[in-house]
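Design review, sub-item: ligand-bound model
Attendees: FS, YL, KQ
YL presented the inputs for the beta-D-glucopyranose complex:
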Amino acid sequence: MQGLRPEILAGIPDDMYSIVRRIEDSFAISTPDLRKLANHFERQLERGLTMDGSDIPMNLSWVMGYPTGKEKGRYLSVDFGGTNVRVCNTLLQGREEDFQMTQEKYKLPVHLRSTSAEKLWDFVACCVGEFIEKHHDECEGQRNQTGRMPLAFTFSYPVTQTSITDGILQKWTKALSVSGVEGNDVVSQFQAALDKRKVPVQIVALVNDTMGALISSNYRDPEVKISSVISTGCNAAYMEDYRSITKIESHFGPDQEASDRLMGINTELGAYDNSRNMLPLTHFDETVDRLSAHPGTQMYEKMVAGLYLGEIYRMILIELHGLGMISPGKDLPILERPDVIDASFLSVAEADMSRSLDEIKDLFKEKLQMDLTPDEVKVCRYLVELVGTRAARLYACSIAAICRRMKVTTCRVGADGSVFHKYTHFKERSLHALREILDWPYFSEDFVTFHNAEDGSGVGAAIIAAMALEKQGGGTLSPKAGF
Ligand code: BGC
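KQ shared the predicted structure:
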């Protein structure tokens, strides 16, 4: 598999070597396999545009086209992704000028990940209230005719939207499982909590983090046509030809006005192959899925995103220990602890390119209280590569499929998320896999390039709020499909 360094394994005993090779075989994805996965991905994207209930839901965002680059003004936004609540006040000054932002982060207490809808929204409303109080002078001027400040709400979960100002949560993903939200409109629930606390704010746009990233990146650089977020979860967004989204007509009837326009699609591609026809799932993946907050869902996400990579690796270590290949005869209760290994552990381990592998040895000692022998270190180091390489290669399938869907051979992708930015070798490995899938000539430059996305959930959300209000003639936004 591209990107691997099997030479690390030189000199390890034969029994260890054969176990590593067995694991490697189950993690390897050949070029033909990558192509099959990408082809199936493309078909699934199309299916999601034509019908409900497809693995990849291809959610409508009601963001109708790219920004003009002239969007200006100050907008509040709330970014809710599951770990923190970030409240921002962004001053947009048009494409040519830098934006200015004031922001505060509030940690979402762990117990609120599985609380009730009421408690969750009260907490988020409280964060907004605190922000407005603290930055009172800056926020005051933003009130509309009804005395409220317009706010864009970035909610990084799959929702069904009938307009820019509503969204029914389809299902929680990642680590959240708050009761009473699935099947309900998150905008009305959050707005009710804001009203109850008398926070003078009106939600004018509901935005997914990927849609925010698409709009903010395109605002800065109009050549960016796809956005991708790969952090705790993974997802991507792009603009689709309205006429190709045939499922719209079955819900809303023909819309002549919109038919030659573009509609932003939040693909929710983390759900690719939930029906398990194509993904090369290993028994490690099956266990990670079973132990996750939402078994049976987001199968692709669980093989590539940050929340799960450490867990996959933990399952491998548990198996190796059970086979007596690492720390034989020693109890390792720490490995039973969910999430004891996170994606940054793997990334740090991958960054150790030394011969001695001292850093990875120290890492295991410090984080897992494991004293590895020189052979064990080599094996553990190599297995980290397997997990990271497979993730990057699978990730590339989604980008290749979207490029094909958009019928583009060259494209700039606005990429965001900790895995993308911080995970050692992730970007290079993805690009290499894209080259294999899309069959770029050997010496050619990369036809698809990744660029750091502008802050989608802050700046992107603000731009979407500006676009929404502009369409509504400023001031108050009436509930209406699209803008
Ligand atoms: C969510 C998406 C989100 C992605 C990245 C996934 O689990 O379903 O809505 O865009 O994570 O945050």
